[in-house]
């Protein structure tokens, strides 16, 4: 086995699901996990995602990903097995032959990307997600009234980016459901807008792509304005705290361009206020 991979106790944990193990190939996806790898094995192959079994948000995110999978299988690879012990939690997914999408302005992937986000908006909210309200943007809103604009009963992915929308000859999938939540349906298309701007689109062009999504078309423009302003504050806060991380600065610039386009770039709030929703994920 690769020396970067876990030790024998981990492989013994998953072996009832894999059978004999032949090869493990670590992958670039799943930056928040302790292990992401394609496992070639007697019963596989499987895409395995695993984390140390320690209290905290990363452990909770893997549990959410397990719980949400039955509801998102139409656009996500199927979870085939899961296992855990005192040291590890592991999920075994169907392996799909796909690549990360390209968000650049001239990319032929864009129609498929937008269609995936639109399909995401059509997924019914499963019962398991009803107790997962989206609140990460709350402390970046002007007040509680504005934060209420982000509420809703749509199932949200909230981490729309080229690595998580993957395309293949036989299908298209949204992966890495690490923090699904319940909220306003326009939030995932709005997250796409910021990503498109970061990839080189003008704000006008990015919003034109988002307008292919019904959840965007149905949204109140006031709610989108509030979300754009909150998103700018969120990304600026993160970039200021980690100036050495280039991609955080790029996202802050993209969010700022979007907020300026919508005319909401100049207002500030105290983002250190004691409000709910202080957890921010990558």
From TrEMBL:
Question: Which source organism?
Answer: Streptomyces hygroscopicus
Q: What domain of life does the UniProt record list for this protein's source?
A: Bacteria
InterPro entries tied to this protein: Kinase-like_dom_sf
Task: Write the protein's name.
Answer: Aminoglycoside phosphotransferase
């Amino acid at each position: 086995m690769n020396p970067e991979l876990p030790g024998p106790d981990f492989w013994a944990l998953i072996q009832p699901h894999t059978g004999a193990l032949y090869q493990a190939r670590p992958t670039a996806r799943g930056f928040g996990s302790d292990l992401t790898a394609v496992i070639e094995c007697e019963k596989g192959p499987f895409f395995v995602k695993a984390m140390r079994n320690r209290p905290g948000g990363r452990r909770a995110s893997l549990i959410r990903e397990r719980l949400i999978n039955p509801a998102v299988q139409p656009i996500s690879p199927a979870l085939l097995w899961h296992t855990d012990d005192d040291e590890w939690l592991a999920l075994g997914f169907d392996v799909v032959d796909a690549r990360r999408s390209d968000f650049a302005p001239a990319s032929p992937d864009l129609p498929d990307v937008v269609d995936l986000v639109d399909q995401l908006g059509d997924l019914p909210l499963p019962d398991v997600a009803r107790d997962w309200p989206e609140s990460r943007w709350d402390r970046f809103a002007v007040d509680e009234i504005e934060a209420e604009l982000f509420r809703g009963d749509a199932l949200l992915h909230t981490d729309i980016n080229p690595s998580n929308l993957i395309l293949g000859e036989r299908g298209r999938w949204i992966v890495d459901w690490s923090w699904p939540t319940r909220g306003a349906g326009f939030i995932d298309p709005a997250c796409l807008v910021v990503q498109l701007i970061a990839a080189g689109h003008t704000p006008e062009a990015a919003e034109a792509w988002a307008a292919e999504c019904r959840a965007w078309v149905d949204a109140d423009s006031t709610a989108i304005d509030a979300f754009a302003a909150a998103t700018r504050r969120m990304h600026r806060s993160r970039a200021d705290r980690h100036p050495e991380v280039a991609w955080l600065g790029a996202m802050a610039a993209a969010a700022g361009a979007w907020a300026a386009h919508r005319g909401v770039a100049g207002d500030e709030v105290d983002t250190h206020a004691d409000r709910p929703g202080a957890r921010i994920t990558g």
